[in-house]
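During the no-cost extension, the postdoctoral fellow (Dr. R.K.) reprocessed legacy sequence entries with the updated structure-token encoder. One reprocessed record is reproduced below for audit purposes.
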Amino acid sequence: MSRLLYYLYFVCFAAPLFLVTTILTALTVIVGCMLGGEKFFSFYPGMIWSKISCYLAFCPVKVRGKENLKKRQSVVFVANHQGAFDVFLMYGFLGVPIKWMMKKGLAKIPLVGAACRAAGFIFVDNSTPRTAQRSIAEAEQQLKKGDSLVVFPEGSRSLDGKMHRFLKGAFRVALDLNLPIVPITLNGPYHVMPIGSKIIRPHRMEMVVHPPISVDDLSYNDRESLLKLVEDVKNIIASELWEEYK
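Re-encoded structure tokens follow.
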């Protein structure tokens, strides 16, 4: 498909349909969760919406390593953060119910922010140590309910598709609750919609699910062990990055 044809398709069909499905999904999540169906409505409408979004963008998706997932086991998923389509890739194709830790600013998006709150997602406020600690406590409460958590430890999308410094909040949650960490490598979302872009570009995407890492016998207060854990997870994610992102 030529660039001009894709642009016309995107403006005249894909973008309006994406807006409609986003509104319908947000309303479904809000109403469903308000009626007591958080377990179902916090995940499945978003999963369907994410798949539709990838199909509308003509972005083929490949998933490797799903055999490393165990159903009904709470884990902390840690992934690199290339672009806006990271969310659609993981939400749509991971295949297990998840909660998200996301930037506080996303709560201001009309309807979407309200839907995320209704679904029990955690908005991270790193403005002060106290508010950051509160965000971690909220995440731990969700995990105690049997949920799994998705965190982008870089904190924000990559400017060049490559990985950057990891924050330690996700690792703190995993260590506090003694939950396995599952590293995930994302390839391709940077080319679909990098930070600052308002136009989606069709591009193949890939998600690689790595084997879980046990945190037994590790302590957040053991700085040396914590730094090694962070570095190990980062290296595992980097091992499956496409060459253009290394």
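The first strand starts at residue 61 and ends at 64. The chain is about 45% helix and 15% strand. The remaining legacy entries will be reprocessed before the final report is submitted.
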